[in-house]
Design goal:
This protein has 160 residues and is of the alpha+beta class. The chain contains six helices and six strands, in the order ααααβαββαβββ. The chain has two domains: 39 residues; 87 residues, Lrp/AsnC effector binding domain/regulation of amino acid metabolism (RAM) domain (Alpha-Beta Plaits, 2-Layer Sandwich), CATH 3.30.70.920. Helix content is 34%, strand content 21%. Strands 2-3-1-4 form a four-stranded antiparallel beta sheet. Strands 5-6 form a two-stranded antiparallel ribbon. α2 crosses α3. The protein is flat and about 55 Å long. The N and C termini lie far apart (54 Å). The model has no long low-confidence stretch (mean pLDDT 91). This is Lrp/AsnC family transcriptional regulator.
Length: 160
């Protein structure tokens, strides 16, 4: 039942518990108890709303920053990642494979604000060897949701 609940709420965290119970064929109380247990176990870590800031008219700049670091003795990458994710500007930090070690996502009000964060805070950390900043220019799909407007069929319909 856990996996089914997680699958449903990952796509729609606002689903009504009664509706979810009906879909799963169980009692509403069972769904509520399972959700509470998964929250306590940190299986469910939070509930988020996906916002299209462009449509809201709010200026935001998002960036993916690839970071190469020197792992700390006995701690690996965890301690460096912790220092980075504690900055309020940072949305997420991932340990990745490839030529960089960490992928950091941040948001700011302008290109300058993001660039200043990278140069003054992130690059200044002792463990950071190099960074590469990739600004997000347009989101087509985010967290499984298509963000781009659906293209219209502009072909001329021929009637026989």
């Amino acid at each position: 039942m856990r996996e089914k609940i997680l699958t449903f709420i990952e796509k729609n965290s606002r689903i009504d518990l009664k509706e979810l119970a009906v879909v799963l064929g169980v009692e509403e109380a069972a769904v509520m108890n399972e959700l509470e247990a998964m929250e306590k176990e940190n299986i469910i870590c939070g509930y988020h709303t996906l916002i299209n800031w462009d449509k809201a008219g709010v200026e935001k700049v998002s960036a993916l920053i690839e970071v190469r670091v020197t792992p700390q003795r006995g701690m690996g990458f965890d301690k460096v990642a912790e220092r980075i994710y504690n900055y309020p500007e940072v949305n997420s930090v991932y340990l990745i494979s490839g030529s960089f070690d960490l992928l950091v996502t941040i948001e700011g009000k302008s290109l300058r604000e993001v660039s200043q964060f990278v140069s003054e805070k992130l690059s200044a950390l002792d463990s950071v060897l190099s960074t590469q900043t990739n600004f997000i220019l347009k989101k087509y799909k985010d967290h499984g949701t298509i963000m781009a407007a659906k293209s219209k069929d502009e072909r001329i319909q021929m009637i026989p």
